[in-house]
């Protein structure tokens, strides 16, 4: 196998040479998690590279294990790796970014927008080959009130949709069909629009919207048909706000998004921004539910979305050389 051709490495590119510290979200110790652990260990052993697996068997231990991986990587000039879905990748990436460490991914999620955008394979063995042979490269990340997001951040209806989706997945399993059914169940319920003031690009706008979505992932934005997708990764974020609409229109917009045509809908306002400040107009609103890469948190307003001051050094394939 010609690794330079596969990973697009020019002669001057330098792959990470230190040991790898892999934070693996093992869930409840299921057979699938056990198989992933064995596959990771075999792949690194076959590559002859030193590695340490830090298992996360309880969700509340994820941040602790991420900090442990960072501590060990700093002491050995190593690499921090996240093996899991969007939530795991987000948490571990935030720890790596804080200390300027190279970061890698072994995708284990349902949609894997982050890894797919950057050419990281879903297959464990192939993902490890990328970690071993590809160089770290700067990747733009977003921040909302100092919380990192790699794919998107949002408030309003979308965070509620994510919470409902997780509840359905706990009951029926993780699949795209379950995610679709959960979205439909969320949309058909009545929701009160947000009353907010947006400050961006030197302008201030007041609006009512069921949801505000800020994207940092070209692939996801392209799939739903957003023209601003091309500005992502160039120092900009893509923001979307929906006009207040009836339930049947929300379902129609959801269908348009699935067909890659959401950007052409009259009910959608989209714009590129470097910094977006959101101020709620409802009196007494002390906290707002915000979703970041599939996880929900409560933040105090104002809510500020921006591009992070420094990039994440992600190990990923370079574009193929002509």
Could you characterize what this model shows?
It is a single chain. The N terminus is likely disordered. Helix 2 runs parallel beside helix 6 and helix 3 packs across helix 4. The protein has 2 domains: 143 residues, Rossmann fold; 141 residues, Tumour Suppressor Smad4. The strands form 4 sheets. Strands 7-6-17-14-9-10 form a 6-stranded antiparallel β-sheet. Strands 13-12-11-8-15-16 form a 6-stranded antiparallel β-sheet, with helices on both faces. Strands 2-1-3-4 form a 4-stranded parallel β-sheet, with helices on both faces. It is globular, with a radius of gyration of 20 Å. The protein has 322 residues and is of the alpha+beta class. Strand 6 and strand 7 form a beta hairpin. It is 35% helix and 29% strand.
CATH architecture classification name of the largest domain: 3-Layer(aba) Sandwich
The shape is: globular
Structural class: alpha+beta
Widest sheet: strand order?
A: 7-6-17-14-9-10
CATH topology of the largest domain: Rossmann fold
Number of helices: 10
Average pLDDT rating: 84
CATH homology group of the largest domain: Probable inorganic polyphosphate/atp-NAD kinase, domain 1
Name its key features.
alpha+beta, Tumour Suppressor Smad4, 2 domains
């Amino acid at each position: 196998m010609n690794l330079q051709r596969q990973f697009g490495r020019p002669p001057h590119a330098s792959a990470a040479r230190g040991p790898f510290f892999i934070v693996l979200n093992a869930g409840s110790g299921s057979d699938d998690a056990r198989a992933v652990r064995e596959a990771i260990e075999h792949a690194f052993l076959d590559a002859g590279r030193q590695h340490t697996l830090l298992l996360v068997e309880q969700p509340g231990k994820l941040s602790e294990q991420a900090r442990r991986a960072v501590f060990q990587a700093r002491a050995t000039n190593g690499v921090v790796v996240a093996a899991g879905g969007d939530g795991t990748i987000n948490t571990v990436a935030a720890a790596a970014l804080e200390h300027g460490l190279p970061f890698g991914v072994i995708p284990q999620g349902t949609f894997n927008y982050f890894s797919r955008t950057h050419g990281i394979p879903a297959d464990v063995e192939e993902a490890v080959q990328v970690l071993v042979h590809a160089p770290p490269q700067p990747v733009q990340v977003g921040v909302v009130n100092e919380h990192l997001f790699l794919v998107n951040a949002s408030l309003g209806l979308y965070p509620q949709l994510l919470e409902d989706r997780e509840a359905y997945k706990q009951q029926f399993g993780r699949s795209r069909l379950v995610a679709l059914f959960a979205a439909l169940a969320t949309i058909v319920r009545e929701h009160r629009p947000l009353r907010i003031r947006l400050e961006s690009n030197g302008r201030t706008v007041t609006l009512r919207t069921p949801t505000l979505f800020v994207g940092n992932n070209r692939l996801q934005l392209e799939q739903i048909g957003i023209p601003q997708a091309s500005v992502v990764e160039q120092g900009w974020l893509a923001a979307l706000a929906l006009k207040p609409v009836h339930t049947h229109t929300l379902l129609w917009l959801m269908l348009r998004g699935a067909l890659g045509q959401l950007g052409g809908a009259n009910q959608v306002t989209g714009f590129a921004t470097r910094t977006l400040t959101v101020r709620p107009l409802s009196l007494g609103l002390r906290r707002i539910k915000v979703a970041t890469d599939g996880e929900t948190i409560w933040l105090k307003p104002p809510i500020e979305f921006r591009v992070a001051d420094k990039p994440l050094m992600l190990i990923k394939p370079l574009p193929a050389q002509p």
